[in-house]
Amino acid sequence: MRRKIMLSKLLAAWVTLLALPLCAAEKLDTEIQSLKKDILELNKDMMLLEEELLFPINTQVTVFLSLDVGELFQLESVKVSIDDKVVASQIYEGREIEALRRGGVQRVYIGNVKPGKHEVVAVFTGEGPHGRKYKRATNYSFEKPNTPAYIELKVTDSGSNPQPEFLVQQW
Amino acid sequence: MHIYTGLRCIVAAASWLVIDDVHAAPAISTGIESLRYRQVLYTMYQGDYAQAQIELVAGKERGELSTNAETELLNGVLLYGAGVPEVAMQSLLRVMAQQDVNARYADLAWFHYAKAAKSLGDLQSFQRGLVSIRQSLPGELEQERRFFQVNQLVAEDKFDEAGDVIDSMERRYAWQAYANFNRGVACLNKKLLECGMRAMTAIDELPDTSHETGALRDKARVVLGFWHLQQNEPNRALHFLRSVSLNGIYSSKAMLGVGWAYAARENYTDALRFWSELRKRDPLDLAVQEGLLASGFAYNKLHSNPLALMHYRQAVTTYKELQDTLDSGLAGLRGGETLSWLPVSMDDKELSVELTKLNENAEKRTILRVLDIPAVREEYRQYRDFVALTNALQTWSDKYTLYDTVLDERVKRQRERALTVRQRVKNVRPEWLEQRFNVAQRTLITSDMAQDGLAFARDTEVRQLQRLQAIYDRLARVPADGLPPYALERYAVLRGILLWNIYTEADNRRKDLGVQLAAVEKELLVTKELWRRMELLSNVDQIPVAKLKKRVSQIRERLKAAAARATAAKLALGSRFTRQITAELEGERQHVAAYLAQAQYAVARLFDESMASGEAQ
User: Fold this and answer.
1) How far does B525 lie from chain A, in Å, by closest CA?
2) A75 vs B540, which has greater pLDDT?
3) Which among B176, B187, B400, B577 could disulfide-bond with B196, CB atoms 3.0 to 4.6 Å apart, if both were Cys?
4) Is A79 within 8 Å of A63 (Cβ atoms)?
5) For residue A9, what pLDDT band results from cuts at 50, 70 and 90?
């Protein structure tokens, strides 16, 4: 009987020993999940706080870029100026273009301007119809309210002629 | 056993396609909400799921994105992509919990729920997710769902039903090929030859459309070839093995098999052709290691014992060198040095370049080879992820110490601006301007109402009129005979001239007053604005500095805590990763030891035989 108890104790000890690394691995995986979740949350709070600190809503201006179809124009780069000052420039490669083509919108710039009248100028370069090098600029005057201003630069294919169109819209 | 592990990376790689299909045309299509939603998609399409998820939740907190089935579904998908499947499952369950949720969204949510559960090894929830899907899923997702269904049926030994599902799958997607492969391997393991052959042959006939399908086809051919070798059907084995691409990752294994197929036909000369070619390859490859022994075996069969002895001896030398290399690799792992030289870049291109450089060193190459094993690769990715995370947390912490300075600077600048504005307005008060404006306005209104030009008389003219009135009053008191000649007439003429001037100028003066009024009004507005700004700027409390500083400090504390946890997790992951590589290398060392023993035995045997026949030199 005593031997049997001894044996069962030994067996239990073995089972515990065997299970230990598994438990540790599970614990680590759980900790990793929990940490990743907390970091996502932390990142989000940081993002919002940084926006508040660096871009107060009364001066905040954001410029977005979108491609609608984009068959007639292969976007290569864009340079954005506000009130004659270059604020953003971007060169596009495969992955970014693909993301734009699939309906994504890129935030090209976020910054501050005083409430009142301003002008945004965007210079697009790329390949136009028939593989020709293409450079086009578009300007847009906008009134910055006391709330955030959202400007969307849109590259679209013109419906009437086989030329790309560069539009600007304030939201 | 390798069926599922081999597919993990493929499933992961395909997850972005899944999302693409779901969100290619977002239902949200108005203004800021659409911009913000598509901004999330842009980030996601570039594979940065964590950042996309942060943008999505931040958008919701800003009130720019609504909480609805679509955003909740996207959130779940992003959380899964960001490596938190458990939280993803909770988010996806919220989609299903919404009242009157669109059936399409519910199906998609169940599908992603199943995938997240699968990554956690939670098979019960995985099955629950799959069976809850009511309709066909859009595009490639449906093919992936059927792939899961096939695996499920195969696991339950329902090979015929699995075959029916495979037949219903679209050939243009790789899912059908993977499903066939899994079914084929399972059938062959169960000795169900016809079922296995049918599945594998389907892969063998795949067109070489991509690197992925090409590799799978090669893998299937190797499986088929070795299966036929086991069944002692060398001709059929040769058919499959010789079709394996020479540049592919299965070429060494195929060359080894081809050699064995010729050997089975007792054509050792041709077998040696392939095994000799194999000997030129990296000895860390298991097929090459076996090839070393096989060459000796073939020469032995060709009764060329000196050559056989020479090859076995070369094999012994190579195995011993391999053992030394593996031992150094193991020592590096146990001493903790490996993690110090292993590249940790999160950029795939950069990592690939860095890893290629390590290929020049035999000891490091042993580790690199192990990194090709999917499970090890996944652990390596996780480890690199945490190295990057701990570095990022450190950078963020440093940045957050600067934010107090940013806030202090902002307050300082605000005070300076207030001073400047105060200087500008110190001599102009809005109430003075307001008084001027009110007087002028009153004049205009009074004259307009009275229709009287006298209201526009200048002060001198008013005084002249008053003097004339005083003269008249005095004249009126003088008796008529005492009046100077023409006194009243002169008075009347002077008054007439004065009034004539006043009335003729009245219109112009009215206009001038209007212009002045507008100027004063404008000045008043500007001054008022300046005063408002001055008051605003003077009131530093307008910037909630204390509140923001508190938030900065809270985040700093959270960053510190997260950095400590991440460092601990990184160390634990590093150690788990090291143990995993160690186990793999020890396994390889055992293999090499077994080959070494065989080679040494063969050398001894041949030496004895040679001694006996007098051939030994």
Assistant:
1) 16
2) A75
3) B187
4) no
5) low
Q: Distance between CA atoms of A112 and B587, rounded to whole angstroms? A: 61
Query: Residue B216's beta-bridge partner residues?
Result: none
Q: How far apart are CA A68 and CA B34, in angstroms?
A: 14
Tokens of B177: 């090929």
Cα–Cα distances (Å) from B376 to A23, B121, B337, B350, B574, in that order, read: 20, 17, 18, 19, 12
The residue among B158, B147, B159 whose CA lies nearest residue B111 is: B147
Helix (H) or strand (E) holding B513: helix B487-538
Q: Is the pLDDT of residue B7 over 60?
A: no
Q: What angle do CA A75, A79, A81 make, to 5 degrees?
A: 145
- Which pLDDT score is estimated for B297? 92
CATH architecture of the domain formed by B1-138:
Alpha Horseshoe (1.25)
- Phi-psi group of B303: left, alpha or beta (phi > 0 → left; psi -120 to 50 → alpha; rest → beta): left
CB A84 within 8 A of CB A139: no
Say whether residue A69 is in contact with chain B using an 8 A CB cutoff: no
Query: Is B382 in Cβ contact with A44 (below 8 Å)?
Result: no
Question: Would you tell me how many other CB atoms lie within 10 Å of the CB of residue A30?
Answer: 11
Under an 8 A CB cutoff, do B572 and A28 touch? yes
* Cα B565 to the center of its chain, rounded Å: 22
Contact B465, B498 (CB under 8 A): yes
Q: pLDDT tens for residues B450-498? A: 677 787 888 888 899 899 899 888 888 888 777 777 888 888 899 899 9
State residue B581 phi and psi, 5-degree precision. -65, -40
Whose structure tokens read 């020993």?
A: A17
Q: Which two tokens stand for residue A8?
A: 């069962």
Chain B residue at shortest CA distance from A44: B54
Q: For B382-410, how does the pLDDT look when each residue is reduced to its tens digit (9 = 90+)?
A: 899 889 888 888 888 888 878 888 888 87
Question: Is-contact B505 B455, C-beta < 8 A?
Answer: no
Contact in structure between B430 and B524 (CB atoms under 8 Å): yes
Sign of CA dihedral B361, B364, B367, B373: negative
Side by side, the strands of the sheet bearing A116-127 are: A85-91, A74-82, A116-127, A133-144
Tell me the nearest-neighbour CA distance from B49 into chain A, angstroms: 11
B526: left (phi over 0), alpha (psi -120 to 50) or beta: alpha
- Cα B357 to Cα B361: distance, rounded to the nearest angstrom: 8
Of B412, B553, B551, nearest to A52 by C-alpha is: B551
| Closest residue in B to A98 (Cα–Cα) | B45
- Domain ranges in chain B are 1-138, 428-543
Strand partners, A107: A64
C-beta separation of B122 from A80 below 8 A:
no
- Nearest CA to B393 among B218, B558, B569, B183? B558
**Residue A75 φ/ψ, nearest 5 degrees:** -65, 130
Q: How far apart are CA B145 and CA B168, in angstroms?
A: 12
- Using CA atoms, how far apart are residues B304 and B294, in angstroms rounded to an integer? 14
What is d(CA B545, CA B549) in angstroms, rounded to the nearest whole number? 6
Interchain CB contacts (distance < 8 Å): A and B = 116
Percentage of chain B beyond pLDDT 70 is: 92
Rounded distance, CA B511 to CA B443, Å?
Answer: 12
Q: What is the ipTM of this complex?
A: 0.87
Amino acid at B196: G
Three-state DSSP class for residue B172: coil
